[in-house]
Amino acid sequence: MNLHSMLLYWLFLRCVPGVLCLAPIPGIYAVGAAVTSFGIASFNLVFCRFYECCDDRWIVNNITGLQIDLKKRLYGQHLVQKVVTSHIQGHVRTPDPHKALVLSFHGPTGTGKNHVSQIVAEMLYKKGLKSENVRLIAVTKEFPHAEMVPLYKDQLREMIEKQVKKCGQSLFIFDEVDKMPGGLLDTIKPYLDHYEELGGVDYRHAIFVFLSNAGGTAITQYALDQWKEGSHREDIKLAAVERILAKAAINSESQGGLWHSELISKHLVTAFLPFLPLERTFVRQCIRDQLVLKRHYPSLEEIPEVIVEEVMQELSFYPEKEQLFSVTGCKRVPEKVDLVMLS
């Protein structure tokens, strides 16, 4: 080992990562700093092999997987499949996005809003919803009291700032955002705007997903009207349903949630994605999936149609005359499968 190597080794032993090396030899500080940086990098390299970090070992951004999973695991939502993939792909593959990505999912119960947000988490992060870079906020649990909005605002700011400071590409999922107390959602407006940084932190790589039943009635009525006119479900266009959602927002009597927030008036939502009510065909697909997932049958092909129909009988459909759409979508399918198969 030559003198130079010995000196670097000696410095490495004396330097603790993150602390300036105090060396008695004049002119050696630059070398010490370099060795310290090397020590930190080496530590991170080893640490991040075993513990989750904000790097490409843990943030996988599997866009191909996202596209495939949405096609295979999401039923009856042709308006959602392509648009979600396009927006997320464009965002995560842009080195310098203009702003945070904000997707707002709207539709009746059980149509796949939570399901899609879970798939997004699974395809972007190695640990999915369990990732430290994913925050799932259940609005009714976290913000139940309207009179505590000032406190909630401070908590929400602190949570977002702390999370994004730790990892720029953090995913925030707000479930039942329509039940958020009035004025609370305005708190996150600065983080969704076009600022390059706030307080030294760049929020533009973050992703926000809002899940809401708001607009669900209007979406359902539009889908029913199209069916009565003889139109195919797949012929429904996104632009047409977006207009329905916009009208529902204007006529909404709720003072909370998304509709009356500054996120709407300042046009900070990247896309509003409507989830259509599920017809019987799609509910049957959900039932078949659950029968295999719960290991009642080894494959879809081996499931008797009589079993599927028995589960269907346990579910409710509307309108009363047409019996076209499932009241709870696919939400109650797992428990109804258990009821039929285990009774």
Walkthrough of the structure:
With 343 residues, this protein is of the alpha/beta class. The protein has three domains: 3-50, no CATH class; 63-274, P-loop containing nucleotide triphosphate hydrolases (Rossmann fold, 3-Layer(aba) Sandwich), CATH 3.40.50.300; 280-342. It is 47% helix and 9% strand. It contains 14 helices and seven strands. It has helices at 3-14, 29-50, 63-73, 78-92, 113-124, 139-142, 149-166, 189-192, 216-228, 238-251, 262-265, 280-293, 305-312, 333-342; strands at 101-106, 134-138, 171-175, 207-212, 271-274, 317-318, 325-326. The protein has a five-stranded parallel sheet with strand order 2-3-4-1-5. It is globular, with a radius of gyration of 25 Å. The termini are far apart. Mean pLDDT is 89; it is low at 10-23.
Secondary-structure map:
Elements: H1 3-14, H2 29-50, H3 63-73, H4 78-92, E1 101-106, H5 113-124, E2 134-138, H6 139-142, H7 149-166, E3 171-175, H8 189-192, E4 207-212, H9 216-228, H10 238-251, H11 262-265, E5 271-274, H12 280-293, H13 305-312, E6 317-318, E7 325-326, H14 333-342
Parallel strand pairs: 1-4, 1-5, 2-3, 3-4
Antiparallel strand pairs: 6-7
Helix pairs in contact: 3-4, 3-5, 12-13, 13-14
